[in-house]
Amino acid sequence: MAFVQFYPILLSLLFALFSLSVLAQTTSNITLGTSLTAGEDDSFRASPSGEFAFGFKQIEEDGFLLATWFNKIPEETIVWSANGQNLTPKGSKVELTSNGWFQLVDPNGKQIWNANPLGTEVAYAAMLDSGNFVLRGQDSQNLWQSFEQPTDTILPGQVLNQQAQLVARYLPTNYSRGRFQFNLQDDGNLVLYTTFFPTDHVNSAYWSTQAFGTGFSLIFNLSGYIILRADNGTIISTISSNTMYSRKDFYQRAVLDYDGVFRHYIYPKNSGSSTGSWSTFSVTPSNICLRVNEEMGSGACGFNSYCTFDGTNKSCHCLNGYSFIDPSDVMQGCKQDFVSQSCDQTSRETDLFDFHEMSNMEWPFSDYEHFQSVSEDWCTQECLSDCFCSSIVFKDGECWKKKQPLSNGRMDPSVGGKALIKIRKDNATLIPEDINRDNDRSKLIIIGSTLLSSSVFFNLVLLVAACLVAYRCCRSNPKGDQDVQLTSTMNLRSFTYEELRQGTKGFTEELGRGAFSIVYKGFLPDTPGNLIAVKKLNMVKGSEKEFEAEVSAIGRRHHRNLVQLLGFCNEGEDRLLVYEFMSRGTLAEFLFKDQRPTWSQRVDIAIGIAKGLLYLHEECSTHIIHCDIKPQNVLLDDSYIAKISDFGLAKLLKIDQTVTTTAIRGTKGYVAAEWFNNKPITMKVDVYSFGVLLLEVICCRKKFDLNVEDEHEVVLIEWAYECFHHRRLDLLVENDEEAQIDMKKVEEYVMIGIWCIQEDPSARPTMKQVVLMLEGFMDVSNPPDLSSFTS
């Protein structure tokens, strides 16, 4: 009976509490016709619990950021922002107009940002306790939410679907878009990228889940797990797992920080106003210094600097003799504080420079010469005598000469070896007049010393004697000198036949074969990676020339997209070449199998091959025409990086030579018309072959395919041109969902391929132009009609 009497009172109390709750939430909303003004006291709205807020944060003296943030901790922690690229001045407003338009305007009423969903009217805006800021319609359904438009942070309860991305801010207190991205791609792969800053184009991946599929989501669940999950509930990958810290007692957030590291942070809720701070729970990747390894760009830190990682934080440092261009923005890199070594032939200034030694240091991709089986003293003297050499890396008898600007610098115990930085002695900074004066003084000293201490007759006797000794050595041991020349000038190791026979288990495991050779898999414990590929030449007519051409063409070359020649065997009648082992086999095997590679993989492969050819054509000291570019001569490593191989037909060009004449070479279907017309052969023959190869990469089919139903599709270049001419490029990538989503790039790549296979060599682009077009840095114009096709 007492309960019955109390029941109406209880109902009234519950209704009152509910009303207060609704009232509290309503007062935190932004309703029709209301606004918040930057610089005023009432410039934000808190969530019902007060844990989060939405409004204006002052970043600069007269620069305000429209943002959401943690509202109950003293450490300013912004989790989302609308106008990081364009801070607004005092007096700017974010308003929900009476007709349901949500926008940010400056004091003059000019719109800076808006969040209106197309074709809908917003009834009110609300800051939720989850940290999500939402725009809602009359039915209280979310029309727009900050959780679906993240900047650099995700919170518990947030879900990112495919095509979503996080973009690191530029600096800790600069909220404009920075140099790193975290993308959940169309193919389901979750990838961390560097960018071609200041553009948003991705450059190089430095971490990924390597998971591919559709219906994937990145979920930061309420238990603190950050997972990649499929629609059916299967956990594909766990990025961070946190069951130790409950949501009740700790705030959590995950951020792609400005330094490129994706960090999961925790903060104790009941820590008090002065003792709390964000702690790092996990980092991805585990060591960004070692993971960023980009061919173009500065790496994890700026140019001419190096990166260290203590397990939580990345640090960028300048070398001895260098200083930061901008200490507040270390990613801009370091500048040299001394005058570079003179390249004047009369005085190389070797006595004015010395080396600063640093252990466990390297700069991948900054090297331009590589020597093997040399001493450290030989290496340093070689660098001192080379005015282009800014530093060297020496490890296990190998010497890499580095050029500026140095990129991808990292210091880590796993690197091993040492770097020696060439700096002017005593760090002296000399102006050019001082250098010239020193050079003149050095010349006088040299001339005087020569006149005082030498005899013309004595020097002549020594010269004749030296020539006689050299002549006798050449006559008595020609093969020995040949091997010495190859090992010293081309930095190659000379293997014995027995070494290679044992390393290949008697040449038993065949990897492939050509007209003059068979390639075997081998194992040698003292070579990089231990696994090798041994090319054994059949000593028939033509094979000796192939051996000489291959050693000459690739012996001194070192590039990310060329297979590295490690050494050779030139013993009696045996000619063998030893290469790095490429675990993924040939591009032909990868491209023409039943399950086609992804579109993004094919794009990377095409760009890699193009860069390898650009290096051969323009960037190495002796320009090289490969003469046989085809899928069988492109190999793939563990990371599916494409590397050009098989230089047996290569033609070296002398200095200032751009053309050559030679008999027909190459493979049918990839050979340019000038081979058959007895015209001079230029680098454009490789461009033609690349054009055919590019079309094969786009379509995942061979240049000739007799198994197709339509006879018009047998010859790939003819069919590709017809599809382009009739605007039916979708036929080239039929059943390839990823490529069909990216049809603009498919069209551009087909156009590049058609440009490359023009019959007139002068109409074809250079490989430099091809690379620029493939990477989107150069517009692709409509190619002319193809009057005829050669095969």
From TrEMBL:
ATP binds at K536. GO terms for cellular component: membrane. This is Receptor-like serine/threonine-protein kinase. InterPro entries: Bulb-type_lectin_dom, Bulb-type_lectin_dom_sf, G-type_lectin_kinases/EP1-like, Kinase-like_dom_sf, Pan_app, Prot_kinase_dom, Protein_kinase_ATP_BS, Ser/Thr_kinase_AS. Residues 505-778 form the Protein kinase domain. Its EC number is 2.7.11.1. One of its GO terms (molecular function) is ATP binding.
